[in-house]
Design a protein that fits this description.
Layout lengths: L2 E2 L2 E5 L2 E5 L8 E6 L5 E10 L2 E6 L11 E8 L1 E4 L7 E3 L15 E4 L10 E2 L4 E2 L4 H4 L4 E2 L6 E3 L5 H11 L3 H6 L6 E10 L1 H14 L5 E7 L4 H4 L2 H14 L4 E7 L1 H14 L13 H9 L3 E3 L5 E9 L8 H9 L2 E5 L1 H5 L6 E8 L2 H4 L9 H25 L6 H18 L9 H12 L12 H7 L2 H11 L1
Parallel strand pairs: 9-16, 14-19, 14-20, 15-16, 15-17, 17-19
Antiparallel strand pairs: 1-7, 2-3, 3-6, 4-5, 4-7, 5-6, 8-10, 11-18, 12-13, 18-19, 20-21
């Protein structure tokens, strides 16, 4: 192993060094400072005679007298089933006071792309216990479904709720023969306060036992943020495709990840793309998101819920815009619903799960699930339109039918979307609650539901109760 003392420049998180032999891209580097500290880095750019090294622990203490050693291998994640219940930092080192990790194997964090021919189409239901997701924007195994939020909104509370409650009902019914469920939680650039909140919740609820937590804090080097999701996804792939777990990966906050890409791009003096972000950000995000999926012949699956905060609540910003191109839908956290005290404040109208139709129905959720969801979408959208009209003409000018749709929109938010962060609803409870609300409306207004289902589930007394309350 050669050792160099040829550092020529230090720029932000990058160190440039001269070399006299070819060095591989992504190769791991050790830099020893004059006072004996060892810092790890990775080759970001390699050209004839010079390399650019991104340093994970920050460049403080590094100078021209520092020694550079090239280890001849790429960064690998030590994986084992015993990782469940552990808390690691953004570089994969234990920070929970537990024993050192004794890995079954070490896997390259870049991962191998899933052969499209070997992919199984995602179509099995994952129950999050959140009605606005399970009932209206269903998550299925192998899907990537991001949460679009804004600064100051409670997306972390929703993430914790999903991490606690998520399950695979079909596997639970099968008993011990079914695959187990695990959660990989990757936090990037979060504050110490948020980290404490996450850990307190994981420990209080016992969710940590089936989880692996990666924590990159706001004061950790930005470069480490680019490694954290890859470590999390490598662990998820091992548990899913080697140990047959159904793995749910929650990554928060992808905006911090993209800001780290922009910072590194600026240090490399790259030509910036939209709003200063690197031109390759789409490709970089795709490399992460496309690691979700199912593989033929394997029982396990990797499902992703990336969370991102939209700067200025702008969904045309490059981060949500590019994420929307790659993923299969989105869940919107709404500022107005949050100000009304709705928990979780999910706005179902702009939300979408593109794989929902394949993951619901007879044998998966319920035979009436799709019809109930479609009818509630239509009724809520009509109620929202009528709210705008009421602001102009007043409620007295509306017909009795229109007033029922207005009441439906109010109750939909107050009873269906509103459920708190500690309440888990089964899919049966969610759909039955949908029938309770739809029964407020006249039967002739339910034009998206099969007549046989209306005859079986419509509550005649619900409409009478609403009318009596109005009187």
């Amino acid at each position: 192993m050669k050792e160099y003392q040829t550092i020529t420049e230090i720029s932000g998180p990058l160190v440039f060094a001269e070399v006299d032999e070819p060095i591989g891209y992504d190769e791991i580097v050790e830099i020893e400072t004059p006072n004996g500290d060892i810092k790890r880095g990775q080759i970001l750019e390699s050209s004839e005679g010079v390399v650019a090294i991104q340093v994970f622990e920050g460049t403080e203490g590094i100078d021209r007298k520092s020694s550079v050693r090239f280890l001849g291998e790429t960064m690998k994640m030590p994986v084992t089933e015993d990782l469940l219940g552990r808390v690691l930092d953004g570089s994969g080192n234990p920070i929970d006071g537990g024993p050192e990790i004794v890995p079954d194997e070490r896997i390259d964090i870049v991962g191998k792309a899933i052969n499209p021919y070997a992919r199984e189409y995602p179509e099995e239901f994952i129950q999050t216990g959140v009605s606005a997701i399970d009932g209206m924007n269903t998550l299925v195994r192998g899907q990537k479904l991001p949460i679009f939020s804004g600064s100051g909104l409670p997306h972390n509370d929703l993430a914790l709720q999903i991490a606690r409650q998520a399950s695979v009902p079909e596997e639970e019914e099968e008993g011990e023969d079914g695959s187990e469920f695990a959660v990989i939680f990757g936090a990037m650039g979060i504050t110490q306060e948020e980290a404490n909140e996450f850990m307190n919740d994981f420990e209080r609820t016992g969710a940590l036992e089936r989880s692996v937590v990666f924590m990159n804090l706001a004061d950790d080097p930005a470069v480490e943020r680019t490694v954290t999701p890859r470590l999390a996804l490598t662990t998820a792939e091992y548990l899913a495709f080697e140990k047959d777990y159904h793995v749910l990966v929650i990554l928060t906050d992808m905006t911090n990840y993209c800001e780290a890409l922009r910072e590194i791009g600026a240090a490399r003096e790259e030509v910036p793309g939209r709003r200063g972000y690197p031109g390759y950000m789409y490709t970089d995000l795709a490399q992460l998101y496309e690691r979700a999926g199912r593989i033929e012949g394997r029982d396990g699956s990797v499902t992703q819920i990336p969370i991102l905060t939209m700067p200025g609540d702008d969904d045309t910003h490059p981060i949500p815009d590019l994420t929307g191109y790659i993923t299969e839908g989105q869940i919107y956290i709404d500022r107005d619903l949050n100000s009304q005290g709705i928990k979780p404040p999910i706005n179902v109208l702009p939300s979408l799960s593109r794989l929902m139709d394949d993951g619901i129905g007879e044998g998966l959720t319920r035979v009436d699930h799709a019809d109930v969801s479609d009818q509630m979408y239509a009724a809520y959208a009509e109620g929202e339109d009528l709210r705008d009209l009421v602001n102009i003409v007043g409620r007295e000018a509306l017909s009795e039918r229109d007033n029922k749709f207005l009441d439906f929109a109010d109750r939909f938010e107050e009873e269906f979307v509103q459920q708190g962060y500690d309440n888990s609803r089964s899919i049966d409870e969610t759909v039955e609650l949908g029938w309770d609300l739809l029964s407020m409306l006249p039967k002739e207004a339910l034009n998206r539901i099969d007549q046989d289902l209306i005859a079986e589930h419509y509550r005649e007394d619900e409409g009478e109760t609403v009318e009596a309350t109005a009187d």
